[in-house]
Design brief:
The protein has 410 residues and is an alpha+beta fold. It contains twelve helices and 17 strands. It folds into two domains: 288 residues, Zn peptidases (Aminopeptidase, 3-Layer(aba) Sandwich), CATH 3.40.630; 114 residues, Alpha-Beta Plaits (2-Layer Sandwich).
């Protein structure tokens, strides 16, 4: 077995966090100057490890082993949410780098090709899971042509050009070249910390179904329009949010979550009854029948709310991410390693957030490992994980990678 270099691992993580450093976190949105500097730094580290480095046409950074043997991809995404944490995505990226290095330094493992990878735009600044979806051929040029930055509207094509990627081809997967894919990530919740566990072995990744719901009422004067004749779109949106909170607990699964992320009113003035209200709403679960049940009830509640308020309603599903089960053989390899290094302190658990592993899993065997998030905090610059847990997770993933290769031998 290989032994990772803990000091080097932590040093590289902190060095990577300097690209876009913000307070104790990072601000490294996709294709920003900081993001591209970080990706080029990663490519340099891959080359120094003896790999061939390549940044493809959507910004994915590949460390390509100089071997004819099938490689094991290990990585995550390199960009961050706005003004967010230093480990979200970066942890898995640097794990891939460190495991590739430690394998190259260990005679017993030197012939086992690790292919570290840093995906682009998992965080949805332009297209959710852009890099991994591009790699498996799930994105065409038309979708790229349509995409714009969610914050400032810059087209994806322009962003790629500005980042020096215009005209660079996108890398496409050859499943025959890879044993599979492993990804490590902070949990982004407090389940591990609250239960006293240090490692989570991911069983499945949730599907996320997202909607825009629009109520059309009648815009009118807030002071002179009698309450009895009002058709207030803002009231309709509020009533729906409350109705969902009342009804969903009775039909949800044990780990279902749902969120009304935004309600916007038009015209949005204190002396005008809103004539239009738009909601962004999503729910998540790892079981398709549960997702379908929630969808049906949501549509019923929208219709009921429209009837009660006299407003006209529209509902459009704008995202239907599929749940994905992690490979059981790869899960067992992680479990075995966790049982050795953290006996009694690991647990199998689903992921409540999307990850590139659910995309790669459509073409390759894939699995994930979680380490605890202190206080359950993520997507915020105070996000953190204890150094000892970071090191433990990397060693367990390295051992799992070694076991996966050896199982392929025979």
């Amino acid at each position: 077995m290989t032994k990772i270099n803990a000091e080097r691992l932590l040093s590289d993580l902190r060095r990577f966090a300097q690209f876009g450093a913000y307070r104790t976190g990072v601000h490294r949105p996709t294709y920003s100057k900081a993001d591209m500097e970080g990706r080029r730094w990663l490519a340099q580290q891959y080359e120094a490890t003896g790999l061939r480095a390549h940044i493809d046409g959507v910004g994915n950074v590949f460390g390509i082993p100089r071997s004819d043997r099938r490689s094991l991809l290990i990585g995550s995404h390199a960009e961050s949410q706005n003004h967010a944490g230093w480990l979200d995505g970066a942890l898995g990226v640097i794990y891939g780098l460190e495991i590739a290095r430690s394998f190259a330094e260990t005679p017993e493992c030197a012939d086992l090709p690790i292919a570290p990878v840093a995906w682009a735009d998992e965080e949805s600044h332009y297209i959710p899971l852009l890099g991994s979806r591009s790699f498996i051929g799930d994105i065409d040029d038309a979708e790229i042509d349509r995409a714009k930055n969610v914050d400032h509207g810059l087209s994806l094509r322009q962003a790629l050009s500005d980042a020096g990627l215009g005209g660079v081809s996108r890398s496409m997967i050859d499943p025959e070249r890879h044993v599979g894919y492993l990804e490590a990530h902070i949990e982004q919740g407090d389940s591990l910390e609250a239960s006293g566990n240090r490692i989570g072995v991911v069983t499945s990744i949730v599907g996320i179904w997202q909607y825009t719901i629009v109520f059309h009422g009648i815009q009118n004067h807030a002071g002179t329009t009698r309450m009895a004749i009002r058709k207030d779109a803002g009231v309709a949106a509020s009533m729906l949010a409350i109705a969902i909170a009342d009804r969903f607990p009775y039909i949800a699964g044990s780990r279902t979550v749902w969120t009304t992320g935004r309600i916007t009113l038009e015209p949005g003035a204190p002396n005008i009854i809103p004539g239009k209200a738009e909601m962004l709403f999503q729910f998540r679960d790892s079981e398709v029948p549960t997702l379908e049940r929630l969808d049906a009830v949501l549509r019923e509640l929208v219709d009921e709310t429209a009837a009660k308020t006299g407003c006209r309603a529209e509902i459009k599903r704008i995202g239907t991410g599929k749940p994905w089960q992690m490979d059981t053989v790869f899960q067992q390899a992680i479990k075995n390693a966790a049982a050795h290094h953290a006996p009694g302190a690991y647990v199998s658990m689903p992921s409540g957030a999307s990850h590139d592993a659910q995309v790669l899993g459509r073409k390759l065997r894939a699995a994930m490992l979680f380490v605890p998030s202190i206080g359950g905090i993520s997507h915020h610059w105070t996000e953190n994980t204890d150094d000892a847990d970071i090191v433990l997770g990397c060693q367990i993933l390295a051992d799992a990678a070694h076991a996966i290769f050896r199982s392929q031998d025979g």
